[in-house]
Amino acid sequence: MATIPTHDLKRPEPKALASTLERLAARFGNRLVTSQAVRDQHAHTTTWLASQPPDAVVMAQETADIQDVVRICAEHRVPVIAFGTGTSLEGQVNAPAGGISIDLRDMNRVIEVHAEDLDCVIEPGVTRKALNEHLRDQGLFFPIDPGADASLGGMASTRASGTNAVRYGTIRENVLALKVVRGDGEIIKTGTRAKKSAAGYDLTHLFIGAEGTLGIIAELTMRLRGIPETIAAAACSFETVGGACQATILAIQTGIPLARIELLNAAQVMACNSYSKLTLPETPLLLLEFHGSEIEVAEQSKNFGEIARECGGGDFTWTTRPEDRTKLWQARHDAYWSVKALRPGAGVVATDVCVPISRLADCVTATEDDLKRFDLLSPIVGHVGDGNFHCSLVCDPEDAGEMARGEEFMHRLVERAQAMGGTCTGEHGIGQGKQKYLKNELGPEALDAMRALKQALDPLNIFNPGKIVPGA
Could you give the CA distance from residue 447 to residue 441 in angstroms, rounded to a whole number? Predict the structure, then answer.
């Protein structure tokens, strides 16, 4: 396991922690859990960083529970870490200084749905799939799909994205307002249900992507969309990664409203075929989805097919049957597990970068060259519509040489993306694992501004300390 940057973090004094646990036990009874198994479940990571469990877990059921935990912990300067479903990838739920994990899964009510306004108000523990199941009978859906059945509070906290982002945007564009518990236990309201506002600072987007370091989200107002009349999915194989990327760029430049467009390199297609029992050609592949009326979808499909052929693409494999579409996209969402099955017993580290789409082919090609150079296995999937791609690096934790090559590969991946005008992470977030890349990406002045915000909103540094900003 890699060393975790702890900076100047200190665990609470034993007497302060004991007093905190005593008061929490009096307030929450058996909803305060201190068993090792439950604590371990609230601290896990798919990076090479070791898990760091909290000292206890509180199972929250309402906003008042969050407020009381924060007030008690603030009095004794005990850290507080929000926990949704635990699908974050960069150690966001770790507790490097100990403290209390607030499990928000029981705060899972859909409070209001305003079908005529295409919005809803929900608690943070509502998951993506549960929300869409709730909305289905009203002809509505929430479009952000990161693959995992993540909680909406967690998705907002990590600025999640996913396969639909090319048409519907990321979570950032789909949150209208939040209610956030601040460091003294009071509530900050960041916005309204209005579709736009010029009223004051944009506090909503300040908390989106803050990974629980500035406050804890207790309620979200979300944008919704109407379920399209027709949805068609397709797979199209290409001779090269460059051809697939060029087809994507041309499609976007010509205004084809793609709903999803995902790249799988040849290694990832092989893994998906084996794991999901598919028979796709084992060359670079685009998975696509088109939304609209029957006529619109037919026109979009025809136009993209012409572009694909110009870029070395083969014939499309089409489906409009929901069960077939589900199977195809489930194979994409199971990419991590398909890679893990390639080498049982080895570890898999998922990482991502994002570059301008004009540089995506260059970045992916250079990354594949690096994998050959370092003799490493890491299939690649990418949200090619917005220049974001993921590597699932397979390494044996017991092989020091392979681990060293893996870390060097990932470091070069980030440096390459940043040199191309991109970012060290498109959607996984910073957490603990990518703090060291922020200074090069944004500059020391930006980090100083982040530290000032942290100090202003969390002067006691109790909210998820040790995450995002080095030294905060």
Answer: 10
For residue 88, give both structure tokens: 């974050």
DSSP at 97 = T
Residue written as token pair 């090479």: 48
Neighbours of 404 (CB within 10 A): 12
Q: Which residue has the tokens 């990838």?
A: 89
pTM above 0.85, yes or no: yes
d(CA 159, CA 447): 18
Give residue 3's pLDDT.
44
Residues 6+ apart with CB under 8 A from 133: none
Q: What are the tokens at 299?
A: 């026109």
Note the pLDDT tens digit of each residue in 188-207. Answer: 999 999 999 999 999 999 99
Q: Which of 242, 217, 253 is nearest to 67 (CA)?
A: 217
Instruction: Judge residue 448's burial from the number of C-beta atoms within 10 Å of its C-beta, 0-12 exposed, 13-18 middle, 19 or more buried.
Output: exposed
CB 402 within 8 A of CB 409: no
Three-class DSSP category at 119: strand
Contact (Cβ atoms closer than 8 angstroms) between residue 232 and residue 290 = yes
Identity of the amino acid at 327: K
**Non-local CB neighbours of 310 within 8 Å, separated by 6+ positions:** 247, 250
DSSP 99: -
SS3 400: helix
